[in-house]
Amino acid sequence: MSFDLSAIDPLRAGRIAPEAAPARTAGDGAFADALKAQTDRVDAIPASPPKEVMDEVLAAQRAIEDMHARGRTLHFEMDSGRVKILLQDLDGNVLKQIPGTKALEISTGRAVE
């Protein structure tokens, strides 16, 4: 599994405007009123992620760019139902396998050894 976070445009969220709701006409009748009662719920996917989510995605993108500048990439793969996390050079050579527990420690902000 790999993700291309370098393709994310941080300014895109600011350019996307929510779609306007279709205009309703008065006196549509009981059927239209019944439909209106069902469609007034707000459970749709938003036009863009919340700012907090975009901030986290952009932080991940910066971390990936920093690793790439150092000549390293992370590769995730499934092996017998378990996730393997591999630190590789840019040619795909495995430099180190990172245990899942260590990855969780790093994700909580602990120092990298």
Task: Provide a descriptive summary of the structure in words.
With 113 residues, this protein is an alpha+beta fold. It has a domain at 30-107: Double Stranded RNA Binding Domain. The protein is built from 4 helices and 3 strands. The protein has helices at 12-15, 30-39, 51-69, 100-107, and strands spanning 72-79, 82-89, 94-98. It has a 3-stranded antiparallel β-sheet. Strand 2 (82-89) and strand 3 (94-98) form a beta hairpin. The mean pLDDT is 76.
Any chance you could write out the topology, listing elements then pairs?
Blueprint: H1 12-15, H2 30-39, H3 51-69, E1 72-79, E2 82-89, E3 94-98, H4 100-107
Antiparallel strand pairs: 1-2, 2-3
Quick structural summary:
This protein has 113 residues and is an alpha+beta fold.
Give me some keywords for this one.
alpha+beta, Double Stranded RNA Binding Domain, three-stranded antiparallel β-sheet, 113 residues, 3 strands
Multimeric state of these chains? Answer: single chain
**Radius of gyration over all CA atoms, rounded:** 23 Å
- In spatial order, strands of the major sheet run 1-2-3
Helix content: 25-40%
Shape: elongated
Number of E-state strands? 3
Order of helices and strands: HHHEEEH
Beta fraction = 15-25%
- N-to-C CA distance: 25 Å
Q: Return the structural class.
A: alpha+beta
Average pLDDT score: 76
Q: What's the CATH C level of the domain at 30-107?
A: Alpha Beta
Which stretches are low in confidence, meaning pLDDT under 50 for 5 or more residues running? Answer: none
Number of helices: 4
CATH fold group of the domain at 30-107: Double Stranded RNA Binding Domain
CATH architecture of the domain at 30-107: 2-Layer Sandwich
Largest β-sheet summary:
3 strands, antiparallel
